[in-house]
Amino acid sequence: MAHYFLFSALKPERARQFHDYMVAIHQGTPMAEAAKVFGDMNRLQRELASYAISAKSFTRSAPDTPVSEPGISNLSPGASALVQARVELGTRLAVSPEGLIAPDEARRRDAWMARVRAAAAGAPGDSDVLSFAAEAECRSGHARQCLSDAEAVLVRSPSDVAALAWKGVALTDLAIAGPAGDRATGLAAARTTIERATALDGAAPLPSIALFQSYTKAGETVPDQAMLGMARVVRAVPAAPGPRLYLAEELLRQGKADMARRVAYTVLNGPYDSPEKTVAATLFPPAGGPPTAGR
Fold this sequence. Notes:
This protein has 17 helices and no strands. It is mainly α. Helix 10 (161-177) packs antiparallel against helix 11. The model has no long low-confidence stretch (mean pLDDT 88).
């Protein structure tokens, strides 16, 4: 179907219908409703079936220019030891929408973190290993260890964007968990660190997410510049549910319910159940129910 609409010589009527359909989807219209623009669906099905068996169906599939050889990076011994841990990262650090972790999963997470820490301790000069360890520590709620690992990377590579971002995340979490009188100063230091990472690589998603969350974690309204940064992340990685949910939650808190629902549409209607989808379904009940704002 995608090949038919994107690569065939569509008749003007079909091209217009496809354009209108995509506009409606972008605006958050349910797919079944948006598809009504095609009119007789039986006729469209016949056209698709005919196109699928036509001799020209895949004549434009080959790339116009030669594809370059894939890039190959040699892993250090420490990074090699963490390949399996990297694969398991999302699973080991996942939590339920209620923030609860089953006892068995908690034990597996602890064992996984022990492996990561052992690898980091055995490779004190390996920036890749330490950067991964910083991510694991920050995402599992160990801000001080995250900060230590990130700073160890920055000693060797002061312009390491990921290490700067994780340092900013750690400083944010420490500021929020620390004395109330020190919070403003701590958050300012965190944002300065994150903004340095953004200045080094404005296209990197991690610093934009870190800056955005430095406000949401603190219960502060996200300023426009940080909102734009998160919007760029959503545009750059449209299939990632996390950034979409973060942005939709903040839009909802700012009273922009319609825009928030459009941003969260692909999370709410995704093909698989994810923790983000469960949260989104709570924030945006079925049609007729009011969105639920919360921090």
